[in-house]
Amino acid sequence: MVKENQVIDLLNLEDLKGNETFHLSNCLIDTIDLIGAFELNVHLKIENCIINNLKIHSCWFVNGLFLKNNIIKNYVDYQMGGHNLKPIVIEGNIFTDFLNFFDCQFENIVELKNNVLLKGTNLLGNKGEGFENSFAIGWLVEKNVGNIDINEMNV
Fold this sequence. Notes:
Elements: E1 2-4, E2 7-12, H1 13-16, E3 21-25, E4 28-33, E5 43-47, E6 50-55, E7 65-68, E8 71-72, E9 76-79, E10 88-91, E11 94-95, E12 99-102, E13 105-106, E14 110-113, E15 116-117, E16 134-135, E17 139-142
Parallel strand pairs: 1-3, 2-4, 3-5, 4-6, 5-7, 6-8, 7-10, 8-11, 9-12, 10-14, 11-15, 13-16, 14-17
């Protein structure tokens, strides 16, 4: 399914059901709420959108996530996530608040490229802690503005 050039109040798990791929492009989105969406089997693509609230705590993007050229305005709390059989690509976005990765287990590559992280992220932080993120295949991090290895979960 493709949604383009729309104003969306709420996108949640129910909206994604029955789709192999769900693509949002050039939309104004108040809230994407995928909290607790264990084993989300849709490939979620979000491009060129403004998102006020991105809620992805405990969401497993099994078939990948493609987040490109968006503005995300809230503190994003991604705990106990990952479990992705396909890549998670976060590219060219502006995060106005902290991007929290906490105790995520990534089974496929995570790419964090060309983003502006105004308050940073702990994707590569928390070294040696029990909640440090793990990367089975690895990660690609390049050309980001902002700290990517903060040793805290909330700044």
